[in-house]
Specification:
Rossmann fold, 2 domains, Arc Repressor Mutant, subunit A, eight-stranded mixed beta sheet, single chain, alpha/beta, about 40% helix
Length: about 350
Protein backbone atom coordinates (compact mmCIF):
# COMPACT_ATOMS: atom_id res chain seq x y z
CA UNK A 1 0.00 0.00 0.00
CA UNK A 2 1.08 3.60 -0.59
CA UNK A 3 2.76 5.80 2.01
CA UNK A 4 0.35 6.92 4.72
CA UNK A 5 -0.40 10.63 5.21
CA UNK A 6 1.55 12.27 8.00
CA UNK A 7 -0.52 12.64 11.20
CA UNK A 8 -1.57 16.20 11.94
CA UNK A 9 -3.09 18.10 14.81
CA UNK A 10 -6.29 20.13 14.64
CA UNK A 11 -8.58 20.66 11.62
CA UNK A 12 -7.10 19.44 8.39
CA UNK A 13 -7.89 18.75 4.79
CA UNK A 14 -5.99 16.14 2.82
CA UNK A 15 -6.30 16.31 -0.97
CA UNK A 16 -7.02 13.30 -3.12
CA UNK A 17 -4.70 10.40 -2.37
CA UNK A 18 -4.71 6.76 -3.38
CA UNK A 19 -4.46 3.39 -1.70
CA UNK A 20 -4.13 0.04 -3.45
CA UNK A 21 -6.61 -2.34 -1.92
CA UNK A 22 -6.02 -6.06 -1.59
CA UNK A 23 -8.78 -6.47 -4.19
CA UNK A 24 -6.28 -5.07 -6.69
CA UNK A 25 -7.83 -1.65 -7.26
CA UNK A 26 -6.45 1.83 -6.63
CA UNK A 27 -8.97 3.68 -4.51
CA UNK A 28 -9.12 7.49 -4.38
CA UNK A 29 -9.83 9.08 -1.00
CA UNK A 30 -9.77 12.40 0.84
CA UNK A 31 -9.79 13.41 4.48
CA UNK A 32 -11.04 16.53 6.23
CA UNK A 33 -11.69 17.74 9.76
CA UNK A 34 -10.36 16.58 13.11
CA UNK A 35 -11.41 14.12 15.77
CA UNK A 36 -12.56 10.48 15.74
CA UNK A 37 -12.72 9.06 12.23
CA UNK A 38 -16.03 8.91 10.34
CA UNK A 39 -15.70 6.78 7.22
CA UNK A 40 -18.37 7.45 4.59
CA UNK A 41 -19.29 4.48 2.41
CA UNK A 42 -20.14 5.87 -1.04
CA UNK A 43 -23.61 5.40 -2.55
CA UNK A 44 -24.38 4.10 -6.06
CA UNK A 45 -21.70 6.08 -7.94
CA UNK A 46 -19.41 8.86 -6.75
CA UNK A 47 -16.80 11.37 -7.86
CA UNK A 48 -14.85 13.23 -5.18
CA UNK A 49 -14.51 16.37 -7.30
CA UNK A 50 -17.98 16.42 -8.87
CA UNK A 51 -19.57 16.01 -5.42
CA UNK A 52 -18.45 19.54 -4.57
CA UNK A 53 -21.03 21.01 -6.98
CA UNK A 54 -23.89 19.87 -4.74
CA UNK A 55 -25.11 22.81 -2.66
CA UNK A 56 -24.82 21.09 0.71
CA UNK A 57 -21.40 19.52 0.25
CA UNK A 58 -19.38 22.24 1.96
CA UNK A 59 -21.81 22.86 4.83
CA UNK A 60 -22.36 19.17 5.62
CA UNK A 61 -18.69 18.28 5.74
CA UNK A 62 -17.71 21.48 7.54
CA UNK A 63 -20.14 20.68 10.37
CA UNK A 64 -19.10 17.03 10.62
CA UNK A 65 -15.45 18.01 10.35
CA UNK A 66 -15.67 19.99 13.58
CA UNK A 67 -16.13 16.74 15.49
CA UNK A 68 -14.79 14.07 13.14
CA UNK A 69 -12.03 13.32 10.71
CA UNK A 70 -14.16 12.56 7.66
CA UNK A 71 -12.86 9.97 5.22
CA UNK A 72 -14.46 10.01 1.77
CA UNK A 73 -13.56 7.67 -1.05
CA UNK A 74 -14.73 6.89 -4.56
CA UNK A 75 -16.31 3.50 -5.00
CA UNK A 76 -14.31 1.01 -7.03
CA UNK A 77 -15.35 1.45 -10.67
CA UNK A 78 -16.34 5.11 -10.23
CA UNK A 79 -14.92 8.61 -9.90
CA UNK A 80 -11.18 8.89 -9.42
CA UNK A 81 -10.77 5.29 -8.30
CA UNK A 82 -9.91 2.58 -10.82
CA UNK A 83 -12.69 2.44 -13.40
CA UNK A 84 -11.98 -1.13 -14.47
CA UNK A 85 -13.88 -3.58 -12.31
CA UNK A 86 -15.06 -7.16 -12.73
CA UNK A 87 -15.57 -8.24 -9.10
CA UNK A 88 -18.87 -6.76 -7.95
CA UNK A 89 -19.25 -8.85 -4.83
CA UNK A 90 -20.29 -7.43 -1.48
CA UNK A 91 -17.12 -8.97 -0.04
CA UNK A 92 -15.02 -6.79 -2.34
CA UNK A 93 -16.90 -3.67 -1.21
CA UNK A 94 -16.29 -4.51 2.45
CA UNK A 95 -12.63 -5.30 1.83
CA UNK A 96 -12.05 -1.89 0.25
CA UNK A 97 -13.42 -0.21 3.38
CA UNK A 98 -11.27 -2.28 5.73
CA UNK A 99 -8.17 -1.84 3.59
CA UNK A 100 -8.65 1.91 3.63
CA UNK A 101 -9.12 1.86 7.41
CA UNK A 102 -5.94 -0.22 7.78
CA UNK A 103 -4.02 2.12 5.49
CA UNK A 104 -5.03 5.08 7.67
CA UNK A 105 -4.31 3.10 10.84
CA UNK A 106 -7.85 3.53 12.12
CA UNK A 107 -8.25 1.22 15.09
CA UNK A 108 -11.78 2.52 15.75
CA UNK A 109 -14.03 4.48 13.43
CA UNK A 110 -17.67 5.37 12.84
CA UNK A 111 -19.33 4.44 9.55
CA UNK A 112 -21.90 6.44 7.60
CA UNK A 113 -23.79 4.56 4.90
CA UNK A 114 -25.96 6.86 2.77
CA UNK A 115 -28.33 5.43 0.15
CA UNK A 116 -26.71 2.49 -1.70
CA UNK A 117 -23.85 2.63 0.78
CA UNK A 118 -26.14 1.36 3.53
CA UNK A 119 -25.91 -2.41 2.90
CA UNK A 120 -22.12 -2.17 2.63
CA UNK A 121 -21.97 -0.17 5.88
CA UNK A 122 -24.08 -2.83 7.61
CA UNK A 123 -21.76 -5.56 6.33
CA UNK A 124 -18.69 -3.64 7.55
CA UNK A 125 -20.20 -3.18 11.03
CA UNK A 126 -21.05 -6.87 11.15
CA UNK A 127 -17.65 -8.09 10.00
CA UNK A 128 -15.55 -5.59 11.99
CA UNK A 129 -17.78 -5.14 15.03
CA UNK A 130 -14.90 -4.38 17.38
CA UNK A 131 -13.59 -1.59 15.18
CA UNK A 132 -16.82 0.21 14.27
CA UNK A 133 -17.83 2.58 17.07
CA UNK A 134 -21.07 3.86 15.51
CA UNK A 135 -23.16 2.99 12.46
CA UNK A 136 -25.27 5.67 10.78
CA UNK A 137 -27.65 4.59 8.01
CA UNK A 138 -29.22 7.39 5.98
CA UNK A 139 -31.93 6.95 3.35
CA UNK A 140 -31.22 3.28 2.95
CA UNK A 141 -32.23 -0.27 3.71
CA UNK A 142 -30.77 -3.73 4.00
CA UNK A 143 -31.57 -4.37 0.34
CA UNK A 144 -31.60 -2.51 -2.97
CA UNK A 145 -33.58 0.73 -3.14
CA UNK A 146 -34.95 0.09 -6.65
CA UNK A 147 -37.58 -2.59 -7.20
CA UNK A 148 -37.06 -5.10 -10.00
CA UNK A 149 -39.78 -3.76 -12.29
CA UNK A 150 -38.61 -0.16 -12.05
CA UNK A 151 -34.99 -1.19 -12.48
CA UNK A 152 -35.73 -3.15 -15.66
CA UNK A 153 -37.09 -0.02 -17.36
CA UNK A 154 -34.44 2.29 -15.91
CA UNK A 155 -31.65 -0.10 -16.85
CA UNK A 156 -32.75 -0.04 -20.46
CA UNK A 157 -32.88 3.77 -20.49
CA UNK A 158 -29.42 4.11 -18.90
CA UNK A 159 -27.85 1.89 -21.55
CA UNK A 160 -29.74 3.60 -24.38
CA UNK A 161 -29.32 7.23 -23.32
CA UNK A 162 -27.22 7.85 -20.21
CA UNK A 163 -27.57 11.67 -20.28
CA UNK A 164 -31.36 11.45 -20.42
CA UNK A 165 -31.43 8.73 -17.77
CA UNK A 166 -29.17 10.72 -15.43
CA UNK A 167 -31.49 13.72 -15.66
CA UNK A 168 -34.53 11.54 -14.97
CA UNK A 169 -32.88 9.94 -11.93
CA UNK A 170 -31.81 13.35 -10.64
CA UNK A 171 -35.30 14.78 -11.02
CA UNK A 172 -36.83 11.90 -9.07
CA UNK A 173 -34.15 11.99 -6.35
CA UNK A 174 -34.24 15.74 -5.68
CA UNK A 175 -37.89 16.86 -5.53
CA UNK A 176 -38.31 20.41 -4.30
CA UNK A 177 -34.64 21.25 -4.81
CA UNK A 178 -33.24 24.16 -6.80
CA UNK A 179 -32.71 23.51 -10.51
CA UNK A 180 -28.95 23.92 -9.99
CA UNK A 181 -28.91 20.98 -7.59
CA UNK A 182 -30.94 18.79 -9.93
CA UNK A 183 -28.51 19.48 -12.76
CA UNK A 184 -25.48 19.10 -10.48
CA UNK A 185 -26.71 15.70 -9.33
CA UNK A 186 -27.31 14.59 -12.92
CA UNK A 187 -23.82 15.80 -13.87
CA UNK A 188 -22.39 13.94 -10.87
CA UNK A 189 -23.95 10.69 -12.05
CA UNK A 190 -22.51 11.12 -15.56
CA UNK A 191 -19.06 12.12 -14.30
CA UNK A 192 -18.91 9.25 -11.82
CA UNK A 193 -19.22 6.26 -14.11
CA UNK A 194 -20.08 4.98 -17.55
CA UNK A 195 -23.57 3.75 -18.30
CA UNK A 196 -22.28 0.18 -18.33
CA UNK A 197 -20.56 0.48 -14.96
CA UNK A 198 -23.59 2.18 -13.42
CA UNK A 199 -25.78 -0.70 -14.57
CA UNK A 200 -23.30 -3.32 -13.39
CA UNK A 201 -23.12 -1.79 -9.92
CA UNK A 202 -26.91 -1.74 -9.54
CA UNK A 203 -27.24 -5.26 -10.91
CA UNK A 204 -24.85 -6.35 -8.17
CA UNK A 205 -26.60 -4.28 -5.50
CA UNK A 206 -29.83 -6.12 -6.28
CA UNK A 207 -28.18 -9.30 -4.99
CA UNK A 208 -27.12 -7.77 -1.65
CA UNK A 209 -29.50 -8.69 1.15
CA UNK A 210 -28.32 -7.95 4.68
CA UNK A 211 -31.70 -8.60 6.31
CA UNK A 212 -30.54 -11.82 7.96
CA UNK A 213 -27.70 -10.17 9.88
CA UNK A 214 -29.51 -7.06 11.13
CA UNK A 215 -30.49 -8.80 14.35
CA UNK A 216 -26.85 -9.73 14.98
CA UNK A 217 -25.55 -6.15 14.91
CA UNK A 218 -24.21 -4.89 18.22
CA UNK A 219 -22.87 -1.55 17.02
CA UNK A 220 -24.78 1.54 18.24
CA UNK A 221 -26.90 2.40 15.21
CA UNK A 222 -28.77 5.48 14.02
CA UNK A 223 -31.32 5.11 11.22
CA UNK A 224 -31.75 8.59 9.76
CA UNK A 225 -34.32 9.39 7.09
CA UNK A 226 -36.16 12.33 5.55
CA UNK A 227 -39.94 12.14 5.73
CA UNK A 228 -40.43 12.73 2.02
CA UNK A 229 -37.54 10.63 0.68
CA UNK A 230 -38.75 9.42 -2.76
CA UNK A 231 -36.87 6.12 -2.46
CA UNK A 232 -37.08 5.21 1.22
CA UNK A 233 -40.33 5.83 3.10
CA UNK A 234 -40.53 6.70 6.78
CA UNK A 235 -42.21 3.34 7.37
CA UNK A 236 -39.35 1.53 5.64
CA UNK A 237 -36.88 3.37 7.87
CA UNK A 238 -38.93 2.41 10.92
CA UNK A 239 -38.90 -1.25 9.92
CA UNK A 240 -35.14 -1.14 9.38
CA UNK A 241 -34.54 0.40 12.81
CA UNK A 242 -36.87 -2.15 14.38
CA UNK A 243 -34.72 -5.02 13.12
CA UNK A 244 -31.47 -3.71 14.59
CA UNK A 245 -31.05 -4.24 18.35
CA UNK A 246 -31.10 -0.92 20.17
CA UNK A 247 -31.18 1.14 16.97
CA UNK A 248 -32.38 4.72 17.16
CA UNK A 249 -34.75 6.09 14.52
CA UNK A 250 -34.59 9.76 13.57
CA UNK A 251 -37.01 11.14 10.97
CA UNK A 252 -36.41 14.68 9.76
CA UNK A 253 -38.23 17.02 7.40
CA UNK A 254 -37.22 17.05 3.75
CA UNK A 255 -37.96 15.50 0.38
CA UNK A 256 -34.55 15.01 -1.24
CA UNK A 257 -32.86 11.62 -1.28
CA UNK A 258 -29.18 12.67 -1.65
CA UNK A 259 -27.73 13.67 1.70
CA UNK A 260 -25.73 16.57 0.23
CA UNK A 261 -28.71 18.64 -0.91
CA UNK A 262 -31.60 20.18 1.00
CA UNK A 263 -31.33 20.77 4.74
CA UNK A 264 -27.91 19.24 5.35
CA UNK A 265 -27.46 21.13 8.63
CA UNK A 266 -30.10 19.05 10.40
CA UNK A 267 -28.61 15.81 9.07
CA UNK A 268 -25.12 16.75 10.25
CA UNK A 269 -26.38 17.85 13.67
CA UNK A 270 -28.29 14.59 14.19
CA UNK A 271 -25.25 12.53 13.21
CA UNK A 272 -22.96 14.47 15.55
CA UNK A 273 -25.45 14.25 18.42
CA UNK A 274 -25.52 10.48 17.97
CA UNK A 275 -21.80 9.85 17.58
CA UNK A 276 -21.07 12.21 20.48
CA UNK A 277 -23.18 10.01 22.72
CA UNK A 278 -26.01 12.45 23.42
CA UNK A 279 -29.23 10.63 24.24
CA UNK A 280 -31.41 13.17 22.50
CA UNK A 281 -30.98 15.81 19.87
CA UNK A 282 -31.96 19.43 20.65
CA UNK A 283 -35.43 18.94 19.13
CA UNK A 284 -36.19 15.84 21.21
CA UNK A 285 -39.07 17.48 23.10
CA UNK A 286 -42.50 16.47 21.89
CA UNK A 287 -44.69 19.09 20.34
CA UNK A 288 -48.02 19.75 22.06
CA UNK A 289 -49.87 17.78 19.37
CA UNK A 290 -47.44 14.84 19.54
CA UNK A 291 -47.84 14.70 23.32
CA UNK A 292 -51.63 14.85 22.94
CA UNK A 293 -51.62 11.95 20.47
CA UNK A 294 -49.27 9.85 22.59
CA UNK A 295 -51.32 10.48 25.74
CA UNK A 296 -54.45 9.18 24.04
CA UNK A 297 -52.61 6.13 22.69
CA UNK A 298 -51.20 5.45 26.16
CA UNK A 299 -54.78 5.69 27.45
CA UNK A 300 -55.82 2.81 25.20
CA UNK A 301 -57.08 4.58 22.06
CA UNK A 302 -56.50 3.14 18.64
CA UNK A 303 -55.11 5.36 15.89
CA UNK A 304 -58.59 5.66 14.39
CA UNK A 305 -60.05 6.71 17.74
CA UNK A 306 -57.31 9.30 18.23
CA UNK A 307 -58.00 10.65 14.76
CA UNK A 308 -61.70 10.95 15.50
CA UNK A 309 -61.17 12.70 18.83
CA UNK A 310 -58.65 15.21 17.50
CA UNK A 311 -60.30 15.65 14.09
CA UNK A 312 -57.22 14.43 12.24
CA UNK A 313 -56.62 11.87 9.54
CA UNK A 314 -55.31 8.47 10.61
CA UNK A 315 -52.23 9.13 8.48
CA UNK A 316 -51.53 12.34 10.42
CA UNK A 317 -51.86 10.46 13.71
CA UNK A 318 -49.38 7.86 12.45
CA UNK A 319 -46.95 10.61 11.50
CA UNK A 320 -47.19 12.20 14.95
CA UNK A 321 -46.51 8.81 16.54
CA UNK A 322 -43.49 8.13 14.34
CA UNK A 323 -42.15 11.58 15.20
CA UNK A 324 -42.61 10.77 18.89
CA UNK A 325 -40.76 7.47 18.54
CA UNK A 326 -37.83 9.22 16.87
CA UNK A 327 -37.67 12.04 19.42
CA UNK A 328 -37.95 9.75 22.43
CA UNK A 329 -35.44 7.27 21.05
CA UNK A 330 -37.87 4.34 21.31
CA UNK A 331 -38.46 1.55 18.82
CA UNK A 332 -42.22 1.40 18.63
CA UNK A 333 -45.67 1.86 20.13
CA UNK A 334 -45.12 -0.34 23.18
CA UNK A 335 -41.89 1.38 24.23
CA UNK A 336 -43.42 4.82 23.66
CA UNK A 337 -46.40 3.98 25.86
CA UNK A 338 -44.09 2.59 28.52
CA UNK A 339 -42.00 5.76 28.41
CA UNK A 340 -45.12 7.92 28.75
CA UNK A 341 -46.60 5.95 31.62
CA UNK A 342 -43.28 5.82 33.48
CA UNK A 343 -43.33 9.56 34.11
CA UNK A 344 -45.95 12.22 34.68
CA UNK A 345 -45.50 13.54 31.14
CA UNK A 346 -42.58 14.54 28.92
CA UNK A 347 -41.87 18.25 28.64
CA UNK A 348 -43.51 19.70 25.55
CA UNK A 349 -42.54 22.52 23.26
CA UNK A 350 -44.82 25.33 22.28
CA UNK A 351 -45.13 24.30 18.64
Amino acid sequence: MEQRPEPTRGPRTVGVQFVTSTVGARIAYTMAGAGPALLVVPPWVTHLDALKALSGHGRFHDLLGRRHTIVLYDRWGTGLSDRNRTDFSLEAEVQVVLDLADHLQLRRFAVLGPSHGGPVAVAVAHRAARRVSHLVLYGTGARTLIDAETWAALRELILANWPAASRAIAAIATPGCEAADVEAFAALLRASASAEMTVALQDAAATYDLTAILGELRTPTLVLNRWGDPFVSAESARRLAGRIPGARLDLVDGTAHPHLVGDVTTLAERIIAFTAGERRVPSAQLSAREAEVLALVAGGCTNAEVAERLVLSVRTVERHLLNSYAKLGVRGRGEAIGYWLARDAPATSAT
